[in-house]
């Protein structure tokens, strides 16, 4: 099997697996009939990020990026709909969704109307998506600082950390093969933050439990 094709499948499998971690939140909302203790903004920002990368994939004619982010956007929209159904803060959720929609429409108009066809549009879109992806990977750093202070890793998800590590590594290698820095660079922080989390698990995991369980991270 060609190495690039192998990396393509690795990106698909690991990324879809990472996006699917939100299904645990969906199950929790359905069972409790409530969206309490579930964060809404991560669903919304991830959806915007997926749609941005989906557009990038179309412009670049990269089927891997298109396929992964089509599934990602579908799952995030599903999470958003279920969250809206069960939340008691429908007005706040509606306003946040409308704001995200306005950002999406503004971005779409900018990249389709004010930028000419070709490399300029692809580069600016890639840079924009890269900045959003980096910010999403770095946003949990504040939680990691709190974990160091409390010496408690119960709020971290070990499976999600593993999934993030392999997903980020796959995309970095994929971007390296394509010589695409817009894919390679924004996924590098995902590797670094995952390594930090692995260290925190090793440092602060309960030694009294043979198989410690970790609560899902509400991203």
TrEMBL record:
<keyword id="KW-0472">Membrane</keyword>
<feature type="transmembrane region" description="Helical">
    <location>
        <begin position="38"/>
        <end position="59"/>
    </location>
</feature>
<dbReference type="Pfam" id="PF03083">
    <property type="entry name" value="MtN3_slv"/>
</dbReference>
<feature type="transmembrane region" description="Helical">
    <location>
        <begin position="65"/>
        <end position="86"/>
    </location>
</feature>
<comment type="similarity">
    <text>Belongs to the SWEET sugar transporter family.</text>
</comment>
<dbReference type="InterPro" id="IPR004316">
    <property type="entry name" value="SWEET_rpt"/>
</dbReference>
<keyword id="KW-0333">Golgi apparatus</keyword>
<keyword id="KW-1133">Transmembrane helix</keyword>
<keyword id="KW-0813">Transport</keyword>
<comment type="function">
    <text>Mediates sugar transport across membranes.</text>
</comment>
<dbReference type="GO" id="GO:0005886">
    <property type="term" value="C:plasma membrane"/>
</dbReference>
<dbReference type="InterPro" id="IPR047664">
    <property type="entry name" value="SWEET"/>
</dbReference>
<keyword id="KW-0812">Transmembrane</keyword>
<keyword id="KW-1003">Cell membrane</keyword>
<feature type="transmembrane region" description="Helical">
    <location>
        <begin position="6"/>
        <end position="26"/>
    </location>
</feature>
<feature type="transmembrane region" description="Helical">
    <location>
        <begin position="156"/>
        <end position="175"/>
    </location>
</feature>
<feature type="transmembrane region" description="Helical">
    <location>
        <begin position="93"/>
        <end position="111"/>
    </location>
</feature>
<dbReference type="GO" id="GO:0051119">
    <property type="term" value="F:sugar transmembrane transporter activity"/>
</dbReference>
<keyword id="KW-0677">Repeat</keyword>
<dbReference type="GO" id="GO:0000139">
    <property type="term" value="C:Golgi membrane"/>
</dbReference>
<feature type="transmembrane region" description="Helical">
    <location>
        <begin position="123"/>
        <end position="144"/>
    </location>
</feature>
<protein>
    <recommendedName>
        <fullName>Sugar transporter SWEET1</fullName>
    </recommendedName>
</protein>
<feature type="transmembrane region" description="Helical">
    <location>
        <begin position="181"/>
        <end position="202"/>
    </location>
</feature>
<keyword id="KW-0762">Sugar transport</keyword>
């Amino acid at each position: 099997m060609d190495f690039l094709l192998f990396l393509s499948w690795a990106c698909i499998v690991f990324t879809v697996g990472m996006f699917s971690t939100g299904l645990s939140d969906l199950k929790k909302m359905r069972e409790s009939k409530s969206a309490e203790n579930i964060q809404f903004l991560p669903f919304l920002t991830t959806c915007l990020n997926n749609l941005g990368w989906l557009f990038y994939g179309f412009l670049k004619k990269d089927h891997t990026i298109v396929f992964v982010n089509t599934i990602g956007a579908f799952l995030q929209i599903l999470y958003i709909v279920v969250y809206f159904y069960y939340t008691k803060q429908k007005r706040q959720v509606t306003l946040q969704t409308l704001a995200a929609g306005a950002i999406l429409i503004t971005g779409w108009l900018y990249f389709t109307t004010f930028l000419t066809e070709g490399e300029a549009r692809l580069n600016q879109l890639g840079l924009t998506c890269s900045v959003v992806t980096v910010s999403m990977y770095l946003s949990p750093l504040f939680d990691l600082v709190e974990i160091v202070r409390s010496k408690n890793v119960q709020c971290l998800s070990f499976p999600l950390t593993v999934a993030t590590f392999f997903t980020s590594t796959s995309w970095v290698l994929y971007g390296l093969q394509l010589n695409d820095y817009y894919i390679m660079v924004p996924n590098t922080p995902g590797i670094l933050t995952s390594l930090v989390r692995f260290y925190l698990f090793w440092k602060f995991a309960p030694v009294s439990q043979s198989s410690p369980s970790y609560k899902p991270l509400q991203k």
